[in-house]
Amino acid sequence: MPSPVTPARGMRDFLPAEKRRRDLVLETIRSTYRSFGFDEIETPVVEDSGRLHAGLGGDNEKLAFAVMKRGLDREALQAADTPLDLADLGLRFDLTVPLARFYASHRATLPTVFRSIQIAPVWRAERPQKGRYRQFVQCDIDIIGEPSAMAEIELLSATSAVVEKLGLVGTTIRINDRRILQSLLRHWSVPADRTETALVIIDKLDKIGVDGVVAELEGIGVPTEGLAAQLGELAGATWRTGEAAPAWLDAAAFADLVALRDALPEARLEFDPTLVRGMGYYTGTIFEIAHPDFGYSLGGGGRYDGMIGRFLGSDVPAAGFSLGFERLVDLVELPEGGGDGGLVLLYDRGLDPVALVRLQGELVARGERVRLDRKAKNLTNQLSGLAGLGYSRFAVVRDAGVSAEELEVRELS
User: Fold this and answer.
1) Alpha-carbon span 14 to 318, nearest angstrom
2) Which domain holds residue 399?
């Protein structure tokens, strides 16, 4: 039985120092994306259940938290065929489905090409483990209405700038195209009705290895003779693979990827024909941030031209990039004393609280961040704790009538 004072499984509390660290990283991400012309929006944490289970979210739909209808009685419970019959809402499992609904709702008031930022929590009924939680923050940028590669260039350029500002060294962006994957499946004679299942299996290559992928593909009726060797070749593919023009490669899609690489020489793009991105809504270019020290991606995205049309009835080009914030924040090294500063007024017992608050207000009006703390007997420990909260200066107040100019302000070290 869980403790009555611990958070729900897969969710976390954040102490002030942790929250400050997260906010500093988030502000770097937010400000960098804004500098590239993206505008921040906000959407509700819940969406209609039917929208969350409309086939737009791939396997994540199975992980959606459902919100039960109000006023359910015994008769309604007995009449339900599935648990989802009892729900009319659900917690969002990503930010892309809400964005598609948002754009369809507000299209008339938005620019022809809309560049959005969404930074917000999402929820999935995952099996909690290191780096994987049931509530976590996503940092998304999307460009809607731009059909050309300009969208991908902007997304990759802005995200590369974020990674650089966060000081993450050695990252690369793996890149592929859904058209190349479709060509690969045709080359392997994968039945049309097994396409999405086969892609899900290939996406597990880094987890279950070549033999595991071959076994699972065989299980859905895919001819597997010589497949292990081909998978090994795919895993070692580079940009030079295009020079050999293998039969499985979609030449037009590969040429588009080469053009992206040439447009972004600083982005360190690597061609990876085994990259799938499990979400079923991707229609073209797909990409993921990789780091040599970690076996998981730090973010990813791609083009999803068909999603918004599900709401509007006509397709609208769209592409996006999502950063895995919970993984990023653990990697970022902040400068020593990287708090937001502030002044602590340490006051002696018995001083007039009204006068103390008046002094605090005077300092706040000047733009200071000011905390009132009764001076402890162990001043060294107290100052150390305040430094840990991000404060950088302190002053001891022995007379509540002292003015702001008369304070003897010292640095916290």
Assistant:
1) 35
2) 343-411
